């Protein structure tokens, strides 16, 4: 995968924006369990009261609380409140909210920040709990002896009807300080959240005493928190949609770029590079492999970046709810990793096999489709069906194996998550019973545990999918990093403006890459403009190889080829091939029309030029016989025209180019002798000034050539005209007498 990272550079900004949105989304998702916890803890259990710091408290009640605060705590508490009575300017404003203000002064909380609230919570909470505790004891005198000992004095000795707090106010400061220390020791084992939760009941009672609507407080809190949850959810959804769009844009753009780059690189390949990659493999790499990369990029941007944020954030927030249950999360993660590693070790080797099997399936399919006529001619349908079925079954069986392994993951994950849920409820319930944890915190911890497990699950799924994508990425990178053997020079020369087209081979030797021996040996000749140079010889003698060296489809092993005195390796391939009209051994037409195929040589050619090329190539007769004429549709590969028609259209396409050099690589083999003779005569009339090189097996085709080169096993064994070779070259004589009679050769 790392070999293709550089192709993501144009999409760096999209990726960075997506990462920023993922952070926002993750924080929004992590906030939802907190809001749910608050609804349970504060909205339901605490009636909408969040703190042990009342927003308003009667003066008489504040005086009672002050009894159980030391000097600094009392000053801190009173400094954050304003005392309002009937003479205060704000009286009319507050008496509506706190009707009890009409009967006695009320302390109103100032506008303080959350940090100050957090500071006051334990101070006010402890005092409120103690005051409430004493009020309960005095209301139940029978429990006073046992319960009062916890405060360091026996409330049962106080006469009934006595104002306990007035009596406590008369105690010496040292005694009150001792009582305060005892109270602080009692609360030392409780966390701040539990102190707040225990103080909520008395705070609600105080609100009721002030004349406030406690039901409305609870409803307002739940509604407001619910609205915040809805807004956070909408934010998360918006980020999800935006990230999905950005990831799709990035992945689709990368896939487009990779397909384009692969296509462009393949276009620059010489025949040597084509021998390394089969056509079926190149098609698979440009389609299936690129699709794998596209899918992985989407998943990486949406999951791989998001999962660690959720995982780490979930752990931090879960531990913030309860540090004592960390081992449950660790246990879940260990079990999950063990499960994933087991599945990973089984499935990974199979992922590496799938792509090669798809290559094989594409190869068999392509061979069957392209060779259908041959298959039918030899009645080999059953054999080919079995061959295809074998390739198809191989792909199917491997995919089924992988899917059977993968399908076990979801049930195992559900079992794991349900097991974690039960364990969290079991352990959390005991902590709730022991006042070490709130119910809402337990629910939030459970949700965070699920988020953490899901984050590891997302990462594990990626680790299973990535190997297959890595294989695809390596296959694509292999193509993109394959340097063509034939390259343009750094400082290319240019052909002269007065181009003639004199081709000279000087001691040329050629060996196919990886071969042990040369296939061409010391080839030397000169092809001149206005003349036809023909190549003939036994099968495999190197005729087509020689003409393939001129447009640099292959590179000479030693020696040189020059045109107009310039080595063809010193000019660009574009400039070189611009001078050549090439007709390959196997004519290839493209899907479209006859006109579009002819315009392939020169898109600016006029109708008259197209018609002339058709006339020279003897194509006009069958073109004009078709109702659509030049607009006749041509199927892919030219399968809807005959072999001879395909060859003539290929020749016409080369002639449209009006090149100074023409190469005909056995391009007349599918023509009858009459059409062959007419085409050569017309070609001599209209392209006689060009340098013409012809590869053929027919003596009749080259009898009138100015120069005939006879090849045998890669060596030039004869060179001259037809008459000269009939006298001096045994190989040529053997070929000639095998085709024509003495009278025809005369």
List keywords for this structure.
61% helix; 10% strand; 29 helices; alpha/beta; ABC transporter transmembrane region fold; 746 residues; rod-shaped; six-stranded mixed beta sheet; 15 strands; four-stranded antiparallel beta sheet; Rossmann fold; 4 domains; single chain
Give a written overview of the molecule.
The protein is of the alpha/beta class and 746 residues long. It folds into 4 domains: 292 residues, Up-down Bundle (ABC transporter transmembrane region fold), CATH 1.20.1560.10; 161 residues, no CATH class; 163 residues, Rossmann fold, CATH 3.40.50; 70 residues, Rossmann fold (3-Layer(aba) Sandwich). Helix content is 61%, strand content 10%. The strands form 4 sheets. The chain has a 6-stranded mixed sheet, with helices on both faces. A 4-stranded antiparallel sheet has the order 5-4-7-8, with helices on one face. The chain has a 3-stranded antiparallel sheet with strand order 1-3-2. The chain is rod-shaped, with a radius of gyration of 46 Å. The two termini are 69 Å apart.
Blueprint (SSEs and pairs):
Layout: H1 12-45, E1 56-58, H2 59-66, H3 71-79, E2 81-84, H4 91-95, E3 106-109, H5 114-139, H6 144-148, H7 164-169, H8 173-187, H9 192-209, H10 214-267, H11 271-274, H12 279-304, H13 306-321, H14 326-370, H15 372-377, H16 381-407, H17 409-433, H18 439-480, E4 503-510, E5 520-527, E6 532-537, H19 543-549, E7 558-563, E8 566-567, H20 573-578, E9 580-583, E10 592-593, H21 594-598, H22 607-616, H23 620-624, E11 633-634, H24 643-656, E12 661-665, H25 673-686, E13 691-695, H26 699-702, E14 707-712, E15 715-720, H27 722-728, H28 730-739, H29 742-745
Parallel strand pairs: 6-13, 6-14, 9-12, 12-13
Antiparallel strand pairs: 1-3, 2-3, 4-5, 4-7, 7-8, 10-11, 14-15
Helix pairs in contact: 1-10, 1-13, 1-18, 5-9, 10-12, 12-14, 12-18, 13-18, 14-16, 14-17, 14-18, 17-18, 22-24, 27-28
